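Recap from last week: sequence in, structure out.
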Amino acid sequence: RIQAALPSIRHLISGGARLVLCSHLGRPKGEPDPQFSLRPAAVRLGELLGQEVFFAGDCVGEDAQVKRGTLDSGQVVLLENTRFHVGEKSNDPEFAEALAGTAALFVNDAFGTAHRAHGSTEGVTHHVENSAMGLLIERELDFLCEKLVDPGRPFLVILGGKKVSDKIEVITALLEKADVFIVGGAMAYTFLKAQGFEVGDSLVEEEKIGLAREILSKAADKGVKFLLPADSRVTKEFREGADTKVTEAYSAGGGIADGWEGIDIGDRAIEEFSAEIRKARTVVWNGPMGVFEMSSFEKGTREVARAVAASNALTIVGGGDSVTAVKKYDLGDRMSFISTGGGASLELLEGKKLPGVAALTDL
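Predicted structure tokens:
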């Protein structure tokens, strides 16, 4: 994310701005915590910019005011972690006003937190003359909104992850636009069970089985192809190096026996999903196909990532674990766009307004 913010930072420096940067790290409990200090980020940013980046030991208060007041044109100061104050997450007006200080312009380039109405994303906009989006947010909105207004077809959506409940809103929204859905990850077992297949000890949201049936029915009514894994890679032990096997195809009477757990899509599923990806002209991918963090369970995610990278489609990787996977397999430069925000990208795909974007000046 430091790298992703560099274009905006360099643009402002080149224009002679006296630049005050604020951000957060980790989940401190509204008070200072040395393990979450941004001081190392100031050092790294200075290396990347080729100039000194000053550091203030707090984001508000006397030290911050002094450091801000002594900046010359083109100089940069990074403030300490905004989450060291409870006013950040509560969007306290006094905290937001202190954070704004004497700034004439606020630039939000933190797409990863644009879906939160916090002091440093929404509150500060009420205490400056103008607020603008940075180059990163502009690019995020272009790919996640503008380019999906009239996508090249077939428009394919790949979804993975643990829970149907985490993705229900994005599924509902994209059923209105997409031609094909590919579903993997643990959430696939809820859909498979909804179809009557045995899934053994796999993670299933029992209370969402009815919802899964409704989604499958709605997709059929709309003529949207909804692909679930044809088979699964399973294990008896959830650990690195565990023995695995691939089930028979579900359509041929296969399933997962009790005592076995699905942890990845199977080889048939990889072939079917890859073939569908090759036909696509627009691909949105959010969520892995299995527990790719462990080498024994990574094949499905790795091969789907390779298929997306090799496609001729406009490829959008929607943040979160999908980004981690793309970087793990060194495929980032072969994707059209990689979002920096997991939750924010999902909310945009769901059609929601982001508070950190809605608060910006409408010129």
